[in-house]
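Raw record, unedited: Peptidoglycan bridge formation glycyltransferase FemA/FemB family protein
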Amino acid sequence: MHVRPIDARQHLDFVAKQGSASFLQTPAWAQVKSEWRGQSLGWFHGEHLLGAGLVLYRQLPKLKRSLAYLPEGPLLDWDAVADAPREWLDPLVRGLKREGAFGVRMGPPVVTRRWGSETLKAAVATGQATKLDSVPADETTDVGRRLAAALQASGWRPPRAEGGFAAGQPQYVFQLPLAGKTEGDLLKGFNQLWRRNVKKAEKAGVTVELGTADDLPAFHEVYVETAKRDGFTPRPLPYFQRMWQAMSAEDPERIALLLARHEGRLLAATTLVRVGRHAWYSYGASSTEGRDVRPSNAVQWQMMRTSLASGCDVYDLRGITDTLDPQDPHFGLIQFKLGTGGEAVEYLGEWDLPLNRPLYAAFDLYLRRRG
């Protein structure tokens, strides 16, 4: 096994053969994250391509040393990696060292546990569990257990147990399975409040339409309002313009902008990203005005319908925390997503391998203080 750089076309062809991959592991994402240096890598046995991944390098100020980061990747046969982690990962590490990496961070796209909506609703109703970890999962994967043990034995550091959202990609997400379902099935899976809100938006005349790059400034205006209301730092408009341009150039169906309007006013807007059979709710914005006509439910429902019509197996509502405590400020997020009838999914999380311990420790402290 050896690892070497590949071009964007090889990378995309490999993704296409897998059916899907995280959009953070497509070549276009390197153009979106312009403050990082991107590189596509391939895993080869002879000349046969067995895996691919996007590495983002973040250089330390004044030093020619970088953190090598593979967000939600790489795309490998993780069952095989769990059996022989050094065979697959040592060639990667050797190559990253040659690129000047002082540490490696990766997020294997491996599901470890799933909790269905009925299980979660029962846990919330009884009030006996305040964390997902305290609720018996409906599914626990063998590959997740074996891979975690193999990585730790190989010197990789597991994800930190932190409350709230971590600095990297979410370990817990909420997903709505779509395979084999109709729009009617999805509506039946909603709780009563979600069904009522979708109908209320339709009755009030809320319309949801696809936008273009020209609509990004309007989206961003509502997004900034959302950030101010919810207390987070918004990304600048050029970030979304760069994201649109890079993703659309890679695949015309990679990204979509959905705009929910009522009586001509833009009340909610979202970006929807798709790679193969997996679709993600990427960014969302909603105005404080007009909440009574439920534009957020309307735009979410349209994203689900669009994903279903595109042949997706999964509609991914992205990150949640592990809380089930109604007193926790993050509880409202899982409560909103739980109404769709989907499931909470735990991934293996982001694992680190320090290559230069002093530099790694300094950079880790910097990220923790910043975040």
